[in-house]
Fold this sequence. Notes:
Elements: H1 3-11, E1 13-21, E2 31-41, E3 47-56, E4 59-70, E5 75-82, E6 85-96, E7 99-108, E8 111-123, E9 126-134, E10 141-150
Antiparallel strand pairs: 1-2, 1-10, 2-3, 3-4, 4-5, 5-6, 6-7, 7-8, 8-9, 9-10
Amino acid sequence: MSEMDRLIDVLEGRWKCRITYEPNPQMPTGGSALGWEECRVGPGRYSILFDTGAESKMGTFEGAGLITWKTTDDAYSLHWLSSDSPEPGVFTGRWLGGDVVFDGREYVGGQGFQSRHSITDIAANGFVYTVDRGPAPEHLARAATIEYTRD
């Protein structure tokens, strides 16, 4: 099984998402949102394309991404675009045990952050996606937890 097939097996499909935000400057007491995500296989099974959306008290959130496998780096490459920023987030990902961890840089509200996105608790009908951000890789703090269940 290729590395892309391994990740496709986890992500492909339509998902319901329950998002919990930790306290932050935009939401001092934290918050929550309900959303969806659709992940589909790209041409030749060499990529995963995904679209996501959510609604919260803060309004509507939209995002889109692309994951590919870079043989030269022996790692996934994730490019993430969202309604939070006109600048894309770029990440490198690998399997660590039974989890997939993406490290990189993303932008929220025009501010750049080091960021780690992790896919954990992987099961046939769902998984957990966490987002940790900070000024440097050694200073990350939980920003959001997203619980995915098959739609």
